[in-house]
Amino acid sequence: MKVKEVADLVGISVRTLHHYDEIGLLKPEQTSEAGYRLYSDENLETLQQILFFKELDFPLKKIKEIINRPSFDRKEALNFHRKILVERRLRIDKMISTIDMTIEHMKGTIAMTNKEKFEGFDFSHNPYEQEARERWGDEAVDKSNANLASMTKEEQKAMQEEMNAIYRSLASLRHTLPESDEAQAAIQKWYIFLNSNIGIHYSLEAFKGLGEMYVEDERFTESIDQFGEGLAQFMRDAMAYYADNNKK
């Protein structure tokens, strides 16, 4: 199959398939004399596997590493995907049930306990942890987790409130220039907060790289932009300017 046929079949863009080829994630079986990429049935099976991993938020670098291992077993991987997706479905079903009950509770037809209001929520797993390990290594993430675990619930709550206050302050400035004195003073508070509370030290370069991730990863963008649309991009620009202008 030609690249356009594969793209139409799967529902992804031709550009995505070109990117997978360029990074060595999915090489077409052959290229025609006219330069067309030609995909085999085996290529399609590999693509299916890639998209299952992607659905579970695995970064492309990690997917490539996994599927290229000599010990990689496609059937075992499919069983893994199924297990995780079933767990996700059960949690989503539970949250939908909680929403339905909450609506009825608001109507006055049923009474919910405080515990029932939060059925289905699970914050024991950090969805960003795997990617953090990929970018900065296990030691940095383990230090961060250990630092959080050492805090009391009151200390964790206070840290969360301080973090939200900084986000709100930055959100109020997001329509100004990132290099303005006000924006730079606010972003400096964010830099100090991270280095004082997370348990690891961010160099200026790492701080700048973190800002890039706020925009590159839509999960971070969505979370940050809850405080104000465009905040993630504003923070990225302000963090880059801060890092570049505070190097010794």
UniProtKB/TrEMBL annotation:
Pfam families: MerR_1, TipAS
Keyword DNA-binding attributed: yes
Domain HTH merR-type: 1-69
Keyword set, alphabetical order: Activator, DNA-binding, Transcription, Transcription regulation
Keyword Iron carried by entry: no
Stored PROSITE patterns: HTH_MERR_2
Protein's recorded name: MerR family transcriptional regulator
Gene source species: Metabacillus litoralis
Classification lineage: Bacteria, Bacillati, Bacillota, Bacilli, Bacillales
